[in-house]
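Appendix B, record 7
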Amino acid sequence: MAAGSPPLRRAGVPDERAWVPWAVLGVGLVSVALLIGSDAVQRRSSLRHLQVIQALAEVQTSVSLAHLWLEEYVSGDEIDGGEIFGRIRRARVLVEAMLGTAGGDLERIAIPPREGALLDQATRLLASIDEFEAIASERRQGFERQLPVGIGSALDVEYDRVFDRVLAQAGELGSGYGELMSRQRRRGRLIFLVIVSAWSAIVAVAATGLRNREQHRRRAEEALEHSREQLLRSQKLEALGRLAGGLAHDINNYLAAIRGHCELVRMKHHDGERLERKMDSVIRTVGRATTLLDRLLVFSRRQPMELEVVRLDRVIDGLAKMMQPSLGEDVRLTTGAAADLWNVEVDLAQIEQVLVNLLVNARDAMPTGGRIEVAAGNRSADGAEQVVVTVGDTGRGIPAADLDHIFEPFWSTKDKSRGGGLGLATAFAVVQQHGGSLEVASEVGRGTTFEIRLPRCRRPETLLPDDAATVEDALGGDERILLVDDNPDFRDSTRALLEALGYRVAAVGDGESALAAVDADGLPDLVLCDVVMPGMSGPELVEKIRERGAVEVIFVSGHPAEVAARYGLDPETAHLVKKQIAVTALAHEIRKVLDGSAGGGSQP
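Structure tokens (predicted):
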């Protein structure tokens, strides 16, 4: 999958949130429909109210004209009496329509049944109109019989009083209807505002949801991209580990051969001080190459730890002497440790590599020189006892944004020509493998301090052969040794070393040749045998040799112990040494095995 591509969905699996856009669209359509519907209702209601107001105005006009014309009629003016009562009947019909008792087109002005107060007012108005019509009819008939019904008469006064009441009641009904119109307008406005507010809230919620969904999608893409990068890194590391493991055997053979030849030169040329210094330099270079190979194996988790109980102040002092020349004349290295420094159980080579990595990083952080301080002390906190080693420098420091990444594999601020980003990642992995932690504190322009925290070990220091001993201290002998290894360079250099120590050596390159040598010359005092060989493996060869008689065996391998275990070799009971072992250590191992079996050395 290309970087930056959207995350893939499994075929046939629907998106759980696919309904969200449709739901938002549906709610939006409903809201629009409500707005349109409420607007239509409001318009119809407003039209009806307008028609009612017009009808009330017509009632007042009709009653007023009837009142005026009757006054003129009883005053002797020529007025059509039918027109007078036609106006009154028109007013009555309109009021009846408001009460809902009229049919036809006048149904549009009917007062809603829920408006009881308005209906009561209309009922009273209708009664007053009926009373007004009755008095008007009485005055007309009285006038026609020439009774005193003119202006100023008692009937005229009653007529005016009823007329005023009709106008007042019509006005009250109009005011009531006006209040109804105001209430409905306010209600319609409220409904509009509620719908608009609800729609706005829906839009806001939908926008927020869509934004959150987009953020979730982006986070998912970032997480997928991060997982993809992690997978690629993991695959890269796995490939690196397999490559390192596969090459370890051959590389160790060549390194062991180089070291063997150099140690042989040292043994045979005691008077050449300059030559010895050069051989020592080559041996140190071989050691560094071996350490680099172990570093790759450790990081790929293919290198088992060989734990020893040590005091780290001795390790720090030894490294300081070795590293000072390579740090440069403008870098001052100081060390210090607590007098009662506790012991720790560590793989010495791996911890040395951690310290070397930190020292190299500190040097690179000070291109114009500076000071590096390495200190070791004891710390008790929260019930845990730890030995703490600090490596501090006065360099340029690490930006805060980079502190979270410095322990990631293949991440580096250095130029690609100066490192591949494995140094601190390897140091972090090694310290974690030892049950400790690696912390860092830094400030730009003020330097950086790394803190290695390792658990305390209460057991005493492990006594090891002193690899710094001179070659002359190596113990030799004259026993017969059968050397079996498929690498001719390692075989030749090791045979020369063993012969220089006085041993009689028969060197062969495979299991069949080894069996032939045993059958021809008899059982040797010691078999020094590789583990992984073409054809017959070392453990298989030893089993066949021991069928012919008892013999002591030391296995030599460039592979980790776990690889040897797959070939049937038990590292707990068998003698297994690395091919990069120093000549003094190998000589001590040979003497320990031979003296243990022969009680002071077996004779051929």
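Remarks on this record: DSSP finds 14 helices and twelve strands in the chain. The longest strand covers residues 370-381.
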